[in-house]
Specification:
With about 100 residues, this protein is an alpha+beta fold. Helix content is about 20%, strand content about 25%. About 10% of the residues are buried. Keywords: Biotin.
């Protein structure tokens, strides 16, 4: 179940137009009587709240809850570039390890 606030007498963590920082609480999710505060992984602004009905709304895994505009523009990395970067980092690590061991 989705809860927009920590308690019934408290204001919602975020609303449409709210700005939040990385680590700020966004909402509370209840699963099997366990209440978990969900924190923002990045900073941004809530463009739209996608939950109808407010607190106590049943939600599904993977269901979008908010439309958010992040403060930083995320650039998707090409899988070939990522593989090349990882390979180069691994080779630098291996070279540094062998140099440190004197072999």
């Amino acid at each position: 179940m989705f809860y927009a606030q920590e308690a019934p007498d408290r204001p919602p963590f975020v609303t449409k137009g709210s700005h939040f920082a990385a680590g700020d609480p966004l909402y509370v999710i209840e699963v099997m009587k366990m209440f978990n505060k969900v924190l923002a992984p990045c900073s941004g602004t809530v463009e739209e709240v996608l939950i109808d009905g407010g607190d106590g709304t049943i939600v599904q895994k993977g269901q979008p809850l908010f439309r958010v505009k992040p403060d930083e523009v995320l650039v998707e990395e090409d899988s070939a570039d990522r593989a090349r970067r990882r390979r180069e980092a691994t080779l630098r690590y291996v070279d540094a390890t062998f140099d440190a061991e004197g072999t």
